[in-house]
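Title: [Solved] Ornithine decarboxylase 2 3D structure

Original question kept below for reference.
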Amino acid sequence: MNGYLGESDFTMVEEGFTARDLLENLLVELCQTSDQGTYFMADLGDIVKKHLRFLKALPRVTTYFPVKCNSSGGVVRLLAELGAGFACASKAEIAQVRSIGVPADKIFYCNPCKQVAHIKYAASHGVQLMTFDNEVELSKVARSHPHARMLLGIAADFSPSACPSVKFGATLTYCRHLLEKAKEQAVEVVGISFHLGSHCLDPQAFSQSVAEAQLAFEMGTELGYQMHILDIGGGFPGPEDTRARFEEIAAAINSALDLYFPEGCGVEVVARPGRYYVTSAFTFAASVTAKEEVPPGQPGSEGRWDAQLYDANALLPCDRSISPVQKPCPDHPSYSSSLRGPPGHAEDRIADGLELPELQVGDWLIFEDMGAYTITTSSLLGGCPQPQITYAMSRVAWEAVQLFQGKPPQAEEDRESLCTPLSCGWEIAETLCVPPVFTPTGII
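Solution (posted by the thread starter after getting help):
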């Protein structure tokens, strides 16, 4: 084992239950003695499953997890244990992964807009792999980090992103100019990078981006660079119900790699899956702290309730599955309901038009698929404490981690004292082959 994650870092559970089951049991236990109004339940076994699935679907691709997607300690330690690298966007993220012993050569400083102080910090801690897509970034790195190994980021905008943002990346027509400028400043360019953005579900977008990356590779080679790294970025879907689409994307990527970067060509392929790893692993609970019936006569007031949730507004994407912990009685009506975060926040709207039973103060709502971009700082929560995160992993998943590192599984007689009679529902289906370390069976 690498020693990043140990059995004391999570609750060992047996098979048969889901993360929601564990969270509901936790609420029953803790809510009598704790005034905490929000909780996360993290199924680390789900992340193990996703990692093994990724290795099977894309055997040539090495993963670098974007820390900004989920910086919780259990996630970072588990992925380090599994041998993943880390894509960091700031000095703080580099410091976090270095603090647990992740070597500098497993860190990719991939922020397209880097602060000079952060570039110098990366240089002083041996982090060399970085990206650039314009002359300003190139000049900053040339002055502050002479030993950097740079990837030229190219534009990849072939399908709409579910979370639109400012697009980064140089056009192909601008790439040669940037490569020539890098040569003038003695900057080592070692490859090409692209990133398709959140929830890019068009497999052909990946294929086209790989094709354009190959053209940029040729430009670099013509200028004398030793181009040997291709970063295909992120954009891989995370919810479990998108597994078929992920496999379509993986098939398209494999075909494109075979065509433009065939095995044996000397090019290392890396990716930055974030939502893919953690979305479905986290389930969130928030308690109702206030309620209000919309007065009659207001538009849409008939049968409508507003509920306020404890410290939840900065955490809850509005497209998640939401349901109460308490099972609604079939005889009780449902109401068109709105959910709000704590007052005093500029954006406290969580969801509108939900059909929910009448909720009472103290009731709990469960939000599923909550692992991506939901772990935030207390400053973003208006000074409120971070939600408590409880990590759990099934014995089968933990044994898979041990096998992945070449450690024999635990003897049967040693297991009983370690496991509670609950589980995060490890999926048993097909044989998964991840050579050469081991060939686990009955994992996915």
